[in-house]
Amino acid sequence: MIRARVVLISGRTHGGPQMISASDRPRSLAVLLAALLTLSLVAGLPGASGQATFDGEVNVSLTPASDGTSAQWSLSDYDSASNVSINITGEQNTQWDNISASGVPNGGSVAVEVAGNLNPNGPSTNGEPVLKLTGVRDLESVYANGTKHLKIIDSAGNVVDTGQKASSVGGMADIDADGDLDIVYADESSNLKYVDSAGNVVDTGQQANSAGGIGDIDGNGDLDIVYADGSSNLKFVDSGGKVVDTGQQAKSVGGIGDIDSDGDLDIVYADNPGGTKTNLKYVDSAGNVVDTNQQTINPGGIGDIDADGDLDIIYADGSYRMIY
After folding, report:
1. Mean of per-residue pLDDT scores for the chain
2. pTM here?
3. How far is CA 273 from CA 40, 190, 250, in A?
4. Of the candidates 125, 64, 124, the residue with the CA atom closest to the CA atom of residue 90
């Protein structure tokens, strides 16, 4: 909306066209839906002492009005006006923008330019805009090969050797919150460690026969690494070194996820560490255990593999068949 105020200090009335241009308003106005011009006239009348004041109002429609658009109106019966002022106020807009980019590397940037002269604001608690990013990430898997070298392979078959050796491989996550993913593994001496893509290794100080998944199991805001220690006790440790014993025995450890949809994370594991047959189970941070009634020689990860809305557990059964 444009609002214009015209003040005539003295004069007599006569007819004549008046014009205001949208280009006289701030150039930053991108779109104007309408213009409302309000005129207050103060004029001296012949033969009268002092001044008489009268007001008039003119509505001018500009739908839409862009820079350079003009609006014209007419007033009847005035002449000899002086010190005319027109004050314009309008709605200032800041636009939103969609951008797209491809092949942006880690650490790369994409410029966003938003038109308008108002500072962007948004729905966040501090009034700042919210930037949402969507994209496609090249998924990678980690494994230890026949000579125990810990490696990464992507969907295109590209393989990267981390330079580490592993007796057991766990999950991937940004454990130390430095912006890159870390791979959990137990080395050849059963030391529980994690390594990032640059080859930086962190030793958790724990012994592990089996390394498992990663997640915020205790809900304290940092990530926990699940493992079975040297005595087959199923535990998890966070990046600060805090260890929690679940009270369960595990021959091997799988992934983490909210399998039963109760709002907390469940740890998948194979029990009966001293036996030839192991049962596939999962336990949450409160110690609640669920037996899937399946036999496994090695539990794996968790995900909605069949896209039916619930999580599936991957495992190898007693005949080495991969099942979920």
Report:
1. 74
2. 0.58
3. 92, 16, 6
4. 64
